[in-house]
Specification:
The protein is mainly alpha-helical. It has 7 helices and 2 strands; from the N terminus they run H-H-H-E-H-H-H-E-H. Helix 1 (2-42) packs antiparallel against helix 2 (56-70), helix 1 packs antiparallel against helix 5 (113-122) and helix 2 crosses helix 7. It is found in: Membrane.
Length: 182
């Protein structure tokens, strides 16, 4: 029994680490590519004749890209690592695949990623974010089906963008963000 729990915990930690690596490198590649394209189009932003308020556009795209990290489970309850390792995020009460909004809510606690990893050592099926969103991670037997709900994915992305903006506001303050924008 203890050996099975240790195995579950180990696989869960591997899943979290693999997700973190995949999502971080994926976001970095997308972000660097977009910055490179922007630099090719505009050149050095400080030498550009474009209005300063246009910095809002790349800021929004940057927040959206980082929002993808919080939405990694939004499509059919599976992040890249969960697809590889055969797991799925489900609603803890109904056992159905978690919808995109629950998925983003469970992942906002990833800003405390080390705490979530430590918590998962003791609770491999449910981390702190799972308790908040009412979800859990289970092995995927491919019997659960769900529709792709684009409207919920868009709402989940907007929640992620809002959360990223809140993180920026906490880090730089509202005055600091307005200085970034203007």
């Amino acid at each position: 029994m203890a050996n099975e729990k240790n195995k579950k915990t180990g696989i869960r930690i591997v899943s979290m680490l693999l997700d973190h690596i995949i999502m971080t490198f994926g976001i970095a590649i997308i972000g660097c590519t977009l910055m490179g394209i922007g630099y090719l189009i505009v050149g050095n932003p400080s030498d550009s004749n474009l209005p300063e308020w246009l910095v809002v556009i790349p800021l929004f795209f940057g927040l959206t890209i980082f929002s993808i990290y919080f939405n990694k489970d939004a499509i059919k309850g599976k992040s890249p690592a969960k697809r590889i390792l055969g797991f799925v995020v489900v609603n803890n009460k109904t056992g159905e695949i978690a919808n995109p909004i629950r998925s983003v809510l469970r992942n906002v606690t990833l800003v405390f990623w080390p705490v979530e990893v430590i918590f998962s050592l003791f609770s491999p099926e449910r981390r702190i974010g799972d308790y908040i969103a009412g979800t859990k991670v289970i092995p995927d037997d491919n019997n659960l089906k769900t529709e792709l709900r684009v409207n919920q994915i868009i709402i989940a992305l907007m929640i992620g963008v809002g959360f990223m903006f809140a993180i920026l506001a906490l880090q730089f303050g509202v005055k600091g963000i307005s200085m970034l924008l203007w």
